[in-house]
Amino acid sequence: MVSLCFHLALICLATERMRAANADSVLAAWLNAQTNVQTWSASVIQTRALKSLTRPLTATGHVWFAAPNRFRWELGDPPQTIAVRQADQMLVIYPKLKRAERYPLTGEQTGPWRDTLALLEAGFPRSPGELESRFRLVGQTTSNHVHEVTLQPRSASARRLMPQIKIAFATDDFALLATEVQFADGSTMRNDFTGAVLNSKLDEATFSPRLEDDFKIVEPLKRK
Amino acid sequence: PDQVGEFIAYLWLNQPPEIFGRLTNRLSPANLTNVLAGAREQLATSLSPGEVARLSYDPFGLLALPEAAALESPAFGQGQDQFASADGKYRIIFVEASEDLSSYRACISWLGKIKFWVQNCLSSQTTGNDVVVRFTGRPAFVAEIAGGMERDITMSVCSTVAIIGALFWWAHRRWRPLLWLLALLALVLGSTLALGGLLFGTLNVVSVGFAAILLGLGVDYGLVLYQESLCAPHLSARELRQILAPGIVWSAVTTAGAFLVLNFGGLPGLAQLGSLVAIGVTLAAVVMLKLFPLLRLPPPSLPPPDAAEYGRRFADRAAVVWTATLVGLLVLVAVLAGGFPRIERSADSLRPRRSSAYAAVEELKGRLGRSQEPYWLLIVGRDEKEVARRLEVIQPILERAATNREIAGFTLAAALWPRAEFQSANRAIAGRMASERELVRAAARTQGFAGNALELTEGLLDFWLRAAGTTKVLWPTNEMSRWILDKMTARTPTNLYFLGLIYPPTNGRPDSLEYARAPLSEPSWQAGLSTQLPRDNVWLAGWTMLGSALLEVVERDFWRVMLPMIALLLGSLWLAFRRLTEVLLSLFTLAFALACLLALMKLAGWSWNLLNLMALPLLLGAGVDYSIHTQLALRRLGGDLAATRRGVGRALFLCAATTVAGFGSNIGSSNGGLASLGQVCASGIAFAYLTSAFFLPVWWKTLVGGRRFAAEVAQSGSLVASRAMEHEPRTRHRAPLQQPSFLYRVEFWRLGLAATRIFPPRTCLHLGNLLASLYWTLARERREVVIENVLTVLAGDRLAAEKLSRELFRNFAAKVVDLWRYESGQSIDSLFGELSGWEHFLEARETGRGVLLLTPHLGNWEFGAPLLAQRGVALLVITLAEPQGQLTEMRRAARARWGIETLVIGRDPFAFVEIIRRLEAGAVVALLMDRPPEAGAALVELFGRKFRASIAAAELARASGCALLPVYLPRTERGYAARILPEIRYDRPALRSRESRHKLTQEIMRAFEPAIRQHPDQWYHFVSIWH
Question: Cβ contact (<8 Å) for A48 and B52?
């Protein structure tokens, strides 16, 4: 009996180790696949389950990504909010309000806009090192050919706002399926990506939006 | 959110009605659904986590304050730069005590608990090793400064006591006097603390340094007394006290005066320190004089000085000392040619040294990019409206200054100040909205918002409901609101205060800590801004300004401190020496020591600062003592350098060492300024002592003592004899004092006459008593003369004579005050009491002869004239010429105003002929019997001793046959009593012989003996009377 129990425990331990090793290899494979991503675009359905609301909010939109770090997010139909990350700045455009906010991407500043950036970039790590530098791996599971990685931001300020971020991707083609951000009060924001297109040529104008003359451009972080 | 709600509601209520109206329109019942739908859409599409978080709990956008209010509300602005550094590695946590921290002990205890918890927390976490926690803020500063004070006072007192003990043991090797000395010092220190507590209530951080300074100074008196008692073992405690009292009293007066003038220095801390030391030094002088002489031990035998050895050493020393003097002067000139030590203009000297709380503040400023020290702009008003009006005036001025780059920027959160008129205008609408709360809740529910989404809104509506129910100006009251407002507002029952911050211009320089301490063009921008700002109730202040502003005060008051000190110094020197050369030598000694101090400061890189500048008057006061004692000892010992060194030299060394220890113990003080004061004073005292001990004797010997030395040695025969003479009671060797006091001058007489006209009699009497007591204390020689005069009347009872002499001085003051009233033309009727013996006067008049009224210097003899004038008797007063012609004339004129004629003997050679003529014609003439001029004196016996009396009465009797009536006017409880004694009969023809006239004079004086015995305290002789 003792021997049987011992063998069972040994098998469980071995299975668990194998599972962990397997999960790590899946994550590594996904990260490896990320290096092949030059461009990526997809439709997105964003679901926000906020503690202050009795029902979740849903918004549709589109997202474009170009290696190494440019992206464009559009939310709403027609777009209510457009976020464009360029090499040295991020623009957040509110077409309805004819207003644009410019956030320079220099220095080591922290703050809400940095957290925003973390939130938008969460699905596009370029290497294990980059992922490791910004997030601590909390857990990972695989089911139905979907691998879900749970991450915790290393930055204390980001962690205070978003204690957890989840990334889900397909285990067969390593396509990004969803990201989910959990906020400090328990609210969540989930992005489900569909119709993803990999490495197609993207129009440069996607990442260099032309602002109409009547747009008001502000730099909220500029000290007065 | 519920806490924030109140503050947001307050800010909205302070908005102008049109802006507040826009909010209320937006939140009108008809518009609520749209607002909430918009919030939902934003919540669904916003990419900003901050915005999502905010809208989740503020769906009505109440936090979207008008721009001015939003900018001035740091807690609601963008970013966390009030609480964290840009890299997130430095964070500030504000901790507020739940207990009362008004006492420093409460601060220490509370901070200790906080530190304990933090340490526990750090040690329990694996990541805690990387975390460094520092503490600052009021409790941290109070705990640190108060703890430092406790440590300072303990350490400085202990180290000073230890040094005193060690020095005393080294010098005398006796336990009992040492223990007594320490016990008396403890008594003095305790009494001073008690008196200080009574006077000041609380002691400040600077004044705690008084304890060690007081010990260092107070012990001097004990040391001098002990040293003298060893040198003069034959003297009783009373005699020792009597000999040393004037020196110690003068020294205490000078030192206490030097410390008291710190009160003119403009720095409250130093003023308190000065007052405490002055009190302590005075107490020390009294305690030591009264008690210490009683405790002395049998003296060791002193080896006799060797004159030959002395001569050789003097010659050697003289050459060495003069060479050293010249070399020293050259070195001093060389060092100081490059300038004097610089004056530090910052207020850093007032800051604690090695302060972890202050270091934490510095780090905080550096890490949060606030390295520039802001200036404070304090706006004061009696009510909210007044402050608001001033803010409206100031805001555009500061904006303009910032635009013109006169200043780098400013923080004036005027929008946080309650606006009474806006609150009043908005109150009704706010109340209405609060009453429609249910509509708000229903709309939110409909749009899918949960109850917790409305917490902020509920808090806001609660405040508005409260606002609607009052007409007073409303301030928010919850914890968070108070936390914010306490940073910039303060309220007292009479005034309201608002604080703004102004950042000085950087002029393009790096934003460094060094810069923050010394901004460029500080005077110009300050002056420019100050002229624009309202003058009343608006104050521009700041730590960097404090230094220069205080230094200005100190520099301005410097001469206010120094001039009295210099006057005190010169006065003391003159009274001590009465010889210009010695006064100049003392001054040169002091100057030499100060120059040495300046050179040391220059070489060591020390600078003058707000506190140590006050060392100068202290050094003048304390440092001069060594030169006085040294020169007086040289005088007493006939220029014997070796004897001086053995006697006063040892005492001075101990005094200087203990004083240096007292001041020096403050070098370790936690207060930088006090430490530098201790450093400078200790060095200065050391230089003053070294100069007095090693240079001055040779200087004195060369410049003053050479000729005198030879004469005195020849006179006394030997140095031993000379020194032995020093300890004999001084009265035995004193030349009889025959001149009246220098105070008996026309100037002082005029002053007295004016005072009696201005002040009421009682005040004049008190003032006179005070001055008489002071004169009795200070004028040792005059006091001794009076004691000697009355000693015979009191059958040689010295103690009784001393006591009586004090009373005599006071009675004389009262007599003079009454005399001034009389001579200034005021009524003196009320001063007269009983008159006895009038019948003797009438009998004498009835004979038809002239009457010669004879009186001693007893009571108020001058009042006899007005008394007779009241009774219609014309009187001729015979008097000697006063010390000044003007005074004689003034007093003559005063008598003339009462119809009394004066005849001054000595001025008119035919005066006596005139008196005889008048007496023969039946006139009444008054004559003083005692203190005659040498030529008119007869040696008679009074109380068994030879006494010079005036023979003029006998001469006049012989010449005119007048009646001789002894009279005196003592002061009694019922006023001045006039006592006319029976006529002294005589045989006129017999008076032809000088012997008979002498006999008659003796008889007259004997008639006065009972009266003098009855009123010895009114027998006013301040010159030697016994032959």
Answer: yes
Interface predicted TM-score (ipTM) of this complex, two decimals: 0.79
**Pair of tokens at residue B155:** 């350490």
Contact B789, B1021 (CB under 8 A): yes
d(CA B262, CA B270): 6
Q: Over the stretch A85-126, which tens digit does the pLDDT of each residue have?
A: 887 888 889 888 888 888 887 655 555 566 666 666 666 777
Query: Do A112 and B50 lie within an 8 Å CB cutoff?
Result: yes
Taking only the tens place, the pLDDT of each residue in B792-840 is 888 777 878 888 998 999 999 999 999 998 888 888 888 888 889 999 9
Q: Is some CB atom of chain A closer than 8 A to the CB atom of B40?
A: yes
The residue among B783, B850, B948 whose CA lies nearest residue B246 is B783
- CA B980 – CA B843 distance, rounded (Å): 12
Q: Tell me: pLDDT of A17 over 70.
A: no
**DSSP-H helix ranges across chain A:** 2-34, 112-121, 128-134, 156-161
Other beta carbons less than 10 A from residue B153's beta carbon: 19
Structure-token pair, residue B539: 């104050």
Closest Cβ opposite residue B56 in set A73, A109, A187: A187
| Partner-chain contact B57 A54, CB within 8 Å | no
Token duo for residue B623: 């440092």
Q: Which residue would you say has higher pLDDT here, B825 or B547?
A: B825
pLDDT exceeds 80 at position B935: no
Q: Do A52 and B59 touch (CB under 8 A)?
A: yes
Distance (Å) of CA B620 to CA B552, B573, B591, B598, B778? 22, 12, 9, 14, 21
- How many interchain CB pairs under 8 A, A with B? 102
In the prediction, which pLDDT does B315 show? 44
- Region of poorest pLDDT, from A193-207, B128-142, B391-405, B426-440: B128-142
pLDDT value of position A187: 86
| B 443-502 near A (Cβ less than 8 A) | 448-450, 452-453
CA distance B216 to B223: 11
pLDDT above 70 coverage of chain A, percent: 79
Contact list in A for residue B42 (CB cut-off 8 A) is 80
CA angle A164, A169, A172 (to 5 degrees): 155
Handedness of CA A63, A66, A67, A72 (dihedral sign): negative
The token pair at B793 is: 């009347």
E strand or H helix at B725, and its extent?
helix B719-726
> Cβ of A111 and B79 within 8 Å?
yes
Tens-place pLDDT, residues B828-844: 888 888 889 999 999 99
Among A45, A46, A50, A52, the strongest candidate for a mutation testing the B interface, having the largest count of B CBs within 10 A, is A52
Residues above pLDDT 90, as percent of chain B: 17
At B152 the pLDDT is 76
Q: What is the pTM of this model?
A: 0.53
The amino acid at B218:
G
In this structure, are residues B513 and B366 in contact, taking their beta carbons and an 8 Å threshold? yes
Tell me which DSSP letter residue B859 carries: B
CB contact (8 A) between residue A224 and residue B71: yes
Nearest-CB residue to B448 (from A53, A221, A224): A53
Q: Which of residues 58-117 of B touch A (CB under 8 A)?
A: 59, 71, 78-80, 84, 86-88
The token pair at B85 is 């550094």
Look-up of token digits 């109206």: B21
Tell which residue, B610, B18, B52, B726, has the closest CA to residue B343.
B610
Per domain, the residue ranges of chain B are 4-84+362-545, 143-343+549-732
Q: Which of B132-146, B206-220, B735-749 has the highest mean pLDDT?
A: B132-146
Give the minimum alpha-carbon distance from A216 to chain B in angstroms, rounded to a whole number. Answer: 16
Residue B40 and residue A48: Cβ atoms within 8 Å?
no
